[in-house]
Amino acid sequence: MANITLVDDDENIVASVSLALESHGHKITAYHDGASGLEALLASPPDLVILDVKMPRMDGMEVLRKLRQTSQIPVIMLTSKDEEIDEILGFNLGADDYIHKPFSQRLLLERVKALLRRVGIGTGDGEAQGGEAARAIRRGKLTMDPARHESTWDGKPVKLTVTEFLLLQALAQRPGFVKSRDNLMDAAYDDQVYVDDRTIDSHVKRMRKKFRVVDPEFDAIETLYGVGYRYRES
């Protein structure tokens, strides 16, 4: 169903995760350190990446940072750390999802399935991008093409991760209307995936930074403190 690259220095995790994913029809390529994993990801991009945080030669955060300079491949981070700051840093760097070790194979499979569905892989004939969600959106200087997963601001491309794209799409579909963080969670995440408010805030913060690279005065995403966010069409 999908080509998945797994980067983790724990051979037991690599073996068990590879077996579980392969049993569901996915093709798995595994690497045991960050440097070789990054080299492979840049040379032959897969459909999805499962990336451990703590690894030799190059840790997962550095791999993610370098990967996001040129690629928006969906990324699930694995971490054995309990510190909240690591998860927030990962989302700020562009991770799409996070799983804490130890985890069940069922949980991982559900997260992989949900993320692949969000990018339209394994859903059959564009099911994930059907109907209203498939139509191009034009709001002022913003243009979004869900079918191609492309976004531009004033004609200049802005590369968004899967999660960032879905969040912005939810806001831009109804300019001026406030979306609570719960609304945005529902728009960007599968029902079986729980994220907290800080995760949404981290994604929005990163989106703004990307748009301000092409337009330093970008202010189309408004924060209503204690309520949520809305898109302001200029």
Subunit arrangement of the protein: single chain
Total beta strands = 11
Structural shape? globular
Task: State the helix count.
Answer: 8
Name the beta content range. 15-25%
The ordered H/E elements are EHEHEHEHEHEEEEHHHEE
Q: Could you tell me how far the N terminus lies from the C terminus, measured between alpha carbons in angstroms?
A: 41 Å
Measured as a percent range, the helix fraction is: 25-40%
User: Which structural class best describes the helix and strand composition?
Assistant: alpha/beta
Uncertain residue ranges: 123-132
**Order of strands in the sheet with the most strands?**
2-1-3-4-5
Q: For the report, how would you describe the main beta sheet?
A: 5 strands, parallel
Please state the average pLDDT score: 85
Please tell me how large the radius of gyration is: 17 Å
Give a written overview of the molecule.
This protein has 234 residues and is an alpha/beta fold. Helices cover 39% and strands 19% of the residues. It has helices spanning 11-22, 34-43, 60-67, 84-93, 105-118, 162-172, 181-188, 197-214; strands at 3-7, 27-31, 48-52, 75-79, 97-100, 137-139, 142-145, 150-153, 156-157, 221-224, 228-231. The strands form 3 sheets. A 5-stranded parallel sheet has the order 2-1-3-4-5, sandwiched between helices. Strand 6 and strand 7 form a beta hairpin. Helix 2 packs parallel to helix 3 (60-67). The longest helix has 18 residues, at 197-214. It is globular and about 50 Å long.
